[in-house]
């Protein structure tokens, strides 16, 4: 139904939000601009791309919609389609030559968004189209750093491995540092709150892949935390055991002269402290872990 007021330019993106292809077509036929924006600076193409309205995306592109027109927030049609996991629309925008390296706030690219969200299929599509696996954001992070940050929160091992593998096969540098942290350190929660729970099977699978692509264990973040410090900080006993077997240095000291074992004791993870050879408690499971992991 028509609104009980004069039609205006912003009705074009408003109709696109709900995927009303006929309404958008009629508005365009009446002469309203295809790149008209709403109060948030969003065009109909951006709204349709984010909403998954493939037929409408086709119409708008055929009518000359600009695939690089960004909203006030910096979002683009491509980033919206990637974020909402609309693969068909991503492919259509790529075919329409939407710029793959157009920067979002923080100098992010669409590929970095796909990696931060843990979307291997989207990352693969973008890389196949020519997206830059070595692009860096305002903090110097590459797509692989973004994927590693996702990895610390991942609960699906297959998905994480597929994402990391996609980037590493595209010649992503497994050992590049950004703001003092490598992908391995980000995978182990270098940017997470202390004691954050993680899926250790996912982390170990990710570490194995990074190590296979020449990531080093003798790296530290700006606090002087190495991989074992981070595993101790977050109470990841399985990761600690894996790192020790892989040759990580248990005697490495951080900028405050603390070993990984001392971090574990400080955090109350006495079972992890015991992994370093000095029993800290008769209990095999620490109270800190019990309190964190109880239902």
From TrEMBL:
One Pfam family this sequence matches: Ank_5
The keyword Repeat belongs to this UniProt entry's keyword annotation: yes
Keywords, alphabetical: ANK repeat, Repeat
Name under which the protein is recorded: Uncharacterized protein
Species this protein is from: Marilutibacter maris
